[in-house]
Amino acid sequence: MASRSLNKVTLIGHLGKDPEIRYTKSGLAVASFSVATNYQIKDEQGNYQDQTEWHNIVAWGKSAEICGQWLKKGQQIYVDGRLQTRTWDDNTGVKHYKTEIVMNEMIMLGGKRDGGNGNPPSESQSIQQDSSQPPDDLPF
């Protein structure tokens, strides 16, 4: 019997840029964007210093289209998803790695002043990601 495991990420942060939307060869939408979270650490002198961590987010299908339509740089959002690391070789034989959060759920927080774009369908309603696996024909 296999042991159980958990791969879950939950963030509340601000978008670092507008989502970038691309499409696979089969026409499936893919959105990628960054979310910044902040925390404080105490330095050697006992002063608190603000630190920022950047997270790469990927959304698929209808969720990707909604992200592209409604999310804007600076807007605060809640994101729930799982960690995934992709690897690829470039033309020179160098292997690259990228760890990102594959979005399962997103909730737009704040209002228009926080970077929102008008009135989304329902700010209190979360956007659920289709749980199907992403296709092999990734546009990046």
| Overall mean confidence score, pLDDT | 85
Question: Rough shape?
Answer: globular
Largest sheet: 5 strands, mixed, barrel
Ends distance: 37 Å
Query: How many distinct helices?
Result: 1
Per CATH, which architecture? Answer: Beta Barrel
Could you write a compact summary of the structure shown?
This protein has 140 residues and is mainly beta. 7% of the residues lie in helices and 49% in strands.
Descriptive overview:
By secondary structure, this protein is mainly β. The protein has a single domain, classed as OB fold (Dihydrolipoamide Acetyltransferase, E2P). Helices cover 7% and strands 49% of the residues. The chain has one helix at 61-70, and strands spanning 9-15, 20-23, 29-42, 48-60, 76-89, 95-108, 127-128. A five-stranded mixed beta barrel has the order 1-3-4-6-5. The protein is globular.
Looking at this protein, list some descriptive labels:
OB fold (Dihydrolipoamide Acetyltransferase, E2P); globular; 1 helix; 7% helix; single chain; mainly beta
